[in-house]
Amino acid sequence: MATGVLQRVSGGLGRAKSGALSAGQLAVWGRGVATSSCRNREDSWFKSLFVRKVDPRKDAHSNLLTKNEESNLYKIQFHNVKPELFCHLIEDVLPSIHADKYYPCELVGTWNTWYGEQDQAVHLWRYRGGYPALTEVMNKLRQNKEFTAYRKERGKMLLSRRNQLLLEFSFWNEPVPRTGPNVYELRSYQLRPGTMIEWGNYWARAVRYRQQNREAVGGFFSQIGNLYMVHHLWAYKDLQSREDTRNAVWQQEGWHEVVYYTVPLIQYMDSRIMIPTKASPLQ
Asked: Where is the NIPSNAP domain (predicted)?
């Protein structure tokens, strides 16, 4: 709009200098330019009233992406520790909670980080029954003297810790115990807010490309903690098997398209190679 006005002003002034326009004609022409400019601004403001409205979502993405017939809640814990005695401590206590039917929870896996953030223990718990099961377990553990003593000893070895509450994607495998030996990779993705549904749509197809060697263990997204965080858990016989498996998937038609469209959804990503402890059901 500004360019058109300048062109008309320039043309009008040029004609005025050459004598083509009288003073009166130039005044009339100037009022016309001003009126046209004002009308364009009014049209722009009027059109802004009819900008397309975003359709309201009918359900939370957590309900759209999870297995609705189940209500499993997961908790992942990251403990940065003084490593000397920590493994022995958890091997005495965590399996007993896992095996006790009094607690509606299961230890899915427990690992030490091999490559990635060093001196870190990672634990993954499943609560069948969702938030009520989590609350029940927490209340019962407060009365467990063995667990209270474990927490006291654990505090002496901790440098820092954090956790997240997660739901599992409906299209991923549910983690089940495995025999070993295996190495595990936890790939964590911080997504851009508002992109979780799009991520799920692409990975519902992508995970099918990653089943040939049974490497897909579980896929989760955060509900409490760092939000819009996704975790993919993979199992490999060793690091060379990991390399071969990841290279082979590029030969499958459609994989490159998934990568092309999902990479822009990521703000940052992280990878840990982990070794299961003796207490881990995932070996």
From this structure: 184-281
